[in-house]
Amino acid sequence: MLEYLLQYQKKRFETSIIMCVADISLLERYMETCPLYAPRPDAAGHHGYDVRVITKLLNNYRSHEAILRLPNKMFYDSELKSCASIDRQKFCKQACAVYVQLLA
Length: 104
What we know:
This protein is mainly α. The chain has 2 domains: 1-53, no CATH class; 57-104, no CATH class. It is 55% helix and 8% strand. The protein has 4 helices and 4 strands. Strand 1 (40-41) and strand 2 (47-48) form a beta hairpin. The longest helix is centred in the N-terminal third of the chain and has 20 residues, at 2-21.
């Protein structure tokens, strides 16, 4: 049992080292090296992914659009859509106002 545990820990440690060395995620690596995952131009000339392989979740129902603004620009090419209900957005504005008052 101890021998098995030591082998498991060794493999886990080796995996951790490999993961730390990698600067990009596995999906990003696939997208750069495997044609199946690469974006392709459609008839209109826009680049998109094969929906049979990659599904990009673009509708966000949980966050206020102000919270999504930065990740939308950085990671989603401004494709994210804030679909939170008006009540949720109203609540977020009120919660932010209370939070700002607490910090003051």
